[in-house]
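Researcher: Here's the sequence for the chain we discussed earlier.
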Amino acid sequence: MQVTSPIPKKHARIEIIPLIDIMFFLLASFMMVSLSQTHMKGIKVALPSPQQAQPNEINRPISIRVGAGGIISFDGQVVLDDQVMPRLFQLHAANPDLKVSISAEGMARHGDVIDTLDKVRRAGIQKVGYQIRAATPGNAGPAAPPAPPAPH
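Model: Thanks. This is the structure I predict for it:
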């Protein structure tokens, strides 16, 4: 007579999932090792040694600042309203590739800034940039309304 055991008998199984993980790890490792052993061949190039470049005064942008009351200054020097156009023509004649940077004080009128831009364009200067700063609490002018909440 055969007596059966109350403990169920377990059969041995080969799990394939861990084997696949190990194979992928080995494949990736061998690929990385083989790629690191590849030597790139290139052409030797004689590069010039670095030198200190002299600041080029000709290519330096001119800073035009519009102040309260329509006061215009070129690189910190106040220029009378009737001298703005001759000064712009003179600068443009000296350097046709002249770059101009326009900025405005907090109390400057928008119309004065646009008039200055028009004068710069009439002088034939095409490269114009604007200096813009974020409003700070101490800056003059009304506070901007808060932005509406972003839609979800």
